Amino acid sequence: MKLSIRHDTHYSYASDVSNSIQFLRLTPRSSERQRILEWQLDLPCKVNSQIDPYGNILHVLTLDKPHGNLDLTAQGLVEIDPGCEQEAGSQSPLPFLRTSKLTQADDALRDFAARQCGSRRDRTAVAELMQALADHMPYSPGATSVGTTAVEAFAGGAGVCQDHTHAFLACARSLGIPARYVSGYLCTEDENHLASHAWAEAWLDDAWYSFDITNRLTRPERHLKLAVGLDYLDACPVRGVRRGGGTESMQAHVQVQHQ
After folding, report:
1. Domain Transglutaminase-like, which positions (predicted)?
2. Is 186 left (phi over 0), alpha (psi -120 to 50) or beta?
């Protein structure tokens, strides 16, 4: 399946920003299930690429002159193999046993994971854990914020894809299963739109397997991966700091065409 993708992001500020730094993880890498045929970023100035500690392609955009808005565009052509269920690991999975503030488990999450999986650590058990989390935390936009932790979202019993993924990571790691946060795109049901999305990957049987808790999917048939990390903060497509600017507003639009 070949997809032509364009992702436009526009930031505007109430007053001029004096300077800003944006960390961009908007460039996907090729793997067993996705092949990047073409890809480019259209940015306000030239930037260099580097590989971050998790193997993601990272661009650091620095603007040191006043600006009232910021436009970012990522576009390219990719080929996805919907039949590929797993990915090999080029790096050790052990770092993904570490927790973070957003993915720390409390007794409630640890007990929940233990009840669902018992002594099992196979793909079937982890899929059942995914289903149980989706039942416990219905999709509810506005119920949480970008800083909501796994503990808070689980206790509230609702959330969005970011919260579902954080809760899953907390549970999996509490069971001794390496698991990582994935940011990317999901091709919608009508296959004419892409949505920014988040899901998880767990290290089972010496490979990474995907678990989309929000959509209850264990096969990433319509997913394009951008970046991975311990949590949202490691893998989010755009993360930055700025001086000045006041209130910020953001608009994003993603288009996809089948080739």
Report:
1. 153-215
2. beta
